[in-house]
Amino acid sequence: MWTEIICGLVIYRLFRYFFYGGDILDVETSDFNAIFSVADRLEKLYGGKVYVGLNIPDADTGSRQNIDMVLVTKGEAAVISVKNLSGFVSINEDGSWTCEGGSSHRTEHHPDPVAEAKKQALVLESYLEQRGVALPEGYFSYKVVIPNPKFRAIYNNFPSEVITYEQWVQLKPEAKSMLSGWIKGAFRGGKKEMQESFHQQLNFTLSTVPMWDRLELKGSKYVLGEFLEFKGKQEDVLALRNIKRSKVSRLIIQKTSMFGLAPSKLQVMYSPRDYRSDGASASEWKEVTIRSSTEVIFQPQNSTKVRKYKFSSITSMSLSA
């Protein structure tokens, strides 16, 4: 019996390795997945556009400010921080949070998330103004969303800027009272032409701000970070030589295996970078064929470890300019 169990585990691990890439088993993607899940739901609830994974220069500190996402709708905008916390969470006198009994099985201390979100909004406003976007004072509101169903509040004393899990699952498109509590209409009563012109400028500028590179892995898993290079056979690396962030904005892995067998070759489609439109047309996409064992070397956000992802485990990759 034990022999059968061990053999079954070995076969399962080999199956995972060949079909999804062993590297997926080594990286925790739940926090990134939570960010993209929140972004997707916000777009469905309120329309507009959500920009994910911003990495904005902070002129005051000379460093970069990570922003999980920015939601922009007509007349409204919000900086949103996602805290994928599980366990029992309480707020300390200084505004910091203490989390106990979570997935890490140890007590965790987090700086005040609301204060962090407020700072992110101020940094973003300053950056956009430097880019020539004339924002009304306090245009960006800010919010902290907790989408983890295992989150438990010890005391119900969270600031109004915090959307707990219970509140998050109850949000509805028609819930204007909750919406108005965290994104504000800055142009109510203004001219329609002025509103449309402003939002076109804002959306265009946000689409070109510094962002983290993005990997989408099989199984609908995401990783934000920095693409470093390709590794593999020389001919495969040479075939990918034109895929540079200065030239390419996105690549998609198209080829799949046949008859349940792991593919030895993959087709990589990539799109030339073009700020003049929302995306390249079908005729502009280019294609190369490489071995499935070719690797993407990637530095995940907030990690000191460099990761290797086989192309066979990747669905797509987006590169920031």
Q: What is the molecular shape?
A: globular
Estimated share of beta-strand residues = 25-35%
Helix-residue proportion = 25-40%
**Total beta strands:** 17
Radius of gyration: 22 Å
The low-confidence runs, each spanning 5 or more residues with pLDDT under 50, are 7-27, 176-183, 185-189
Number of domains: 2
Q: What is the H/E order? A: HHEEEEEEHEEEHHHEEHEEEEEE
Average pLDDT score: 83
* Sequence of strands across the biggest β-sheet: 14-13-12-17-10-11-15-16
Pfam family, one: NERD
InterPro entries: NERD (IPR011528)
Q: What does the model show?
A:
- By secondary structure, the chain is an alpha+beta fold.
- Strands 14-13-12-17-10-11-15-16 form an eight-stranded antiparallel β-sheet. Strands 1-2-3-7-9 form a five-stranded mixed β-sheet, with helices on both faces.
- The radius of gyration is 22 Å and the shape is globular.
- The protein has helices at 2-20, 30-46, 113-130, 165-170, 176-180, 192-206, 234-239, and strands at residues 49-58, 63-73, 76-82, 87-91, 97-100, 108-110, 141-145, 151-153, 162-163, 213-217, 221-231, 248-253, 265-272, 286-291, 295-300, 307-310, 314-318.
- A hairpin with a 6-residue loop joins strand 15 (295-300) and strand 16 (307-310).
- The protein folds into two domains: 12-28 and 212-318, no CATH class; 47-206, no CATH class.
